[in-house]
Amino acid sequence: MEQAKLQEILQKHKKWLDGDNIEGVKANLRNANLCGADLRDADLRDADLRNANLCGADLRNANLCGADLSNANLRNANLCGADLRGADLSGADLSGAELSGANMFDANLRNADLRNANLCGANLCGADLRGANMFGANLCGAGLRGADLRGADLRYANLCGAGLRGADLRGANLDFSCFPLWCGGLDMHIDDRLARQLLYHLLRNVAYSKNTSDEMKSLLFTPELISAANQFHRVDECGRIAQQEVTT
User: 204 phi and psi, to 5 degrees?
Assistant: First the structure.
């Protein structure tokens, strides 16, 4: 789409947002080809961008609050500082996108593709991320409080410093991820699969270390906990824990 045409649509949309029912027209950019478009600081609140091609578009600091971006192509788009509160990004392709500092509070990202996306410092509190592909995503310092991450693929994701209190991680795959060990990594909803994974890593490290006290080892290395840890889904690859392996 030509920049002049796009600007005309944006101007009419602004009038619509301001309540001008005569000259104002809600932006309908459904299926539009906006590949590489310059939309910095654009006000596209509540706009229809379903299936739009925004590959490589510059959307820095754009206001997309409440916009419908379902199934949109946002690969490698720059959305740094963008306001996406309550936006519908379900099924959208955000792979490789720059989303650092973006506000995605309560956004719908169900089944979205966020592979290798940069979400450093992004606000994803309350977001619906069920089934999202977040393989290799950078979530360092991201706010995920109360986010629904059920069934999300978080393999190789960087969750260092991420706030996950109240987040639902049932069925999520966190293999090879950087899991947060701070207060923001407490009070999550986890399933047996993740619980066994965390328990296995704890027991293996305690078993190996000569610096963990015998008292602590005796508390942790019970037949019940060892049995649970050995149900870890990668136990065949990493090896089973045996009572006699404990180093004292």
Answer: -65, -40
Placement of tokens 């796009």 in the chain: 6
pLDDT digits (tens, 9 = 90+) for 160-191: 999 999 999 999 999 999 989 999 999 999 99
Encoded amino acid at 151, one letter: G
Give me the DSSP letters along 30-83: TT-B-TT-B-TT-B-TT-B-TT-B-TT-B-TT-B-TT-B-TT-B-TT-B-TT-B
The whole-angstrom distance between residue 228's C-alpha and the CA centroid of its chain comes to 29
Tokens 């932006």 belong to residue: 27
**CB contact at 8 A, 107 and 86:** yes
CB count, 10 Å around CB of 201? 14
Is pTM beyond 0.90 here?
Answer: yes
Compute the mean pLDDT over every residue in the chain, rounded to the nearest whole number. 96
Q: What does DSSP assign to residue 243? A: G
CA separation for the pair 15, 25 (Å, rounded): 7
Sign of CA dihedral 9, 15, 19, 22: negative
Task: Look at residue 52 and tell me whether its pLDDT is greater than 60.
Answer: yes
